[in-house]
Amino acid sequence: MKNLTRNKSRILHPREVMRNLSIEKNEYRRTKKEEEIIKKYLNDYKSLHDYNKTNSKFSDYFNLCKRILTDTISDELLCRRFFQDPNSLTDFEIINSTNENPSAKSIFGTFWPKRAHTMIGLMRLENLQFCVEEIIKNNVQGDLIETGVWRGGATIFMRIILKKYEILDKIVHVADSFEGFPQPNPEMFPEDSGVILHNIQELKVGLNEVKNNFKMYGVLDSQVQFIKGFLENTMKTAPIEKLSLLRLDSDMFSSTLTVLENLYDKLSSGGYLIVDDYFLPGCKKATDDFRLQNNISEPLQQLDYYSVFWKKTS
Ligand SMILES: C[S@@+](CC[C@H](N)C(=O)[O-])C[C@H]1O[C@@H](n2cnc3c(N)ncnc32)[C@H](O)[C@@H]1O
Fold first, then answer.
1. Helices marked H in 183-306 — which ranges?
2. Known catalytic membership, residue 27
């Protein structure tokens, strides 16, 4: 992706364009180029949203879930009723609850939300829905996993989709330290030198809190398996035989490479690999190195500024 000129004296990286979505309009005036980038991403979002709306058997219900998971519904009472009993909402209420347009920053997940159960935003949830529904449609064998789950929202959504389609032979694996990021190990992984994510309190979410979130959505059951510990320690022996979806969201070089090295072979042909943090240099390098060393030629599909995914075909 090309750099962009903010004005003659200042080069603005696309990441900044996205970050600036979080700034109130009156504090920051976007250039025409920045507006164009945002417009393109918004169009991509709309296309994917429309695709899912047209093709999903449960599109209204999944829309409601995506909006609740991202905390983008202003009707607090409706959300409370959903958590008490999702079946108590009428079709009319479900459809109307998602009429309000979400903000661009909620679509792209450009910030760490205070209350939402996921930080990945609506665009990446649309991609997740697309991948899981394709897997179901094409009967791709294997479980689903996210490595790096924070409050659990993306994995909760995976379980919601399986449940709605009454899929009984797939498990959602929820892998995290449940105590935040590890200290980088620059001797083994120089690519992670200087990463300070382990210091960030907001990124530490305990196992009980995540389990409780699953419970709130009515999906804490035997088709959910928690794998607690640093991925560098847990992935080698994780009780996983086959996967249809592998979603990586642990940001760093070390964990990205570890997960790919231990789980990619278990991904079935027809399954999907999503790299949430491809925009981060360490994560990108781990992914690119792994693809090169393993002659992976399936094209990388750019999802939004942050993420890529590909369908395994071999
Ligand atoms: C960006 S958040 C994940 C966001 C999440 N996917 C969502 O839906 O909001 C990163 C998560 O990865 C976990 N994490 C990062 N590095 C890890 C590692 N090496 N081992 C285990 N967990 C890790 C952190 O604890 C944190 O919960």
1. 207-216, 231-234, 253-263, 281-293
2. no
Q: What is the pLDDT of residues 160-172, one digit of tens each?
A: 999 999 999 999 9
- Find the CATH number of the domain harbouring 82: 3.40.50.150
The total of structural domains in the chain comes to 1
- Spell out the residues 6+ positions from residue 254 whose beta carbon is closer than 8 angstroms to its own: 182, 184, 185, 188, 189, 191, 192, 232, 286
Tens digit of each residue's pLDDT (9 = 90 or more) over 12-46:
455 566 666 655 555 567 788 888 888 899 999 99
- For the whole model, what pTM was predicted? 0.93
Structure letter (DSSP) for residue 301: E
Whether 256 is in the pocket of ligand 1, judged by its Cβ within 6 Å, is no
Tokens at residue 150, please? 């924070």
Q: How far apart are CA 114 and CA 196, in angstroms?
A: 21
Q: Is 171 part of a structural domain of the chain?
A: yes
State which residues form the domain around 74.
Answer: 4-20+31-311
Residue 257 CB–ligand 1 contact under 6 Å: no
Query: Is 147 inside a domain boundary?
Result: yes
Residue 26 lies in a domain: no
In a domain, 219, yes or no: yes
Write down the catalytic residue from 126, 133, 146, 232.
126
Q: How far is CA 279 from CA 158, 193, 229, 251, 282, in A?
A: 23, 17, 25, 9, 9
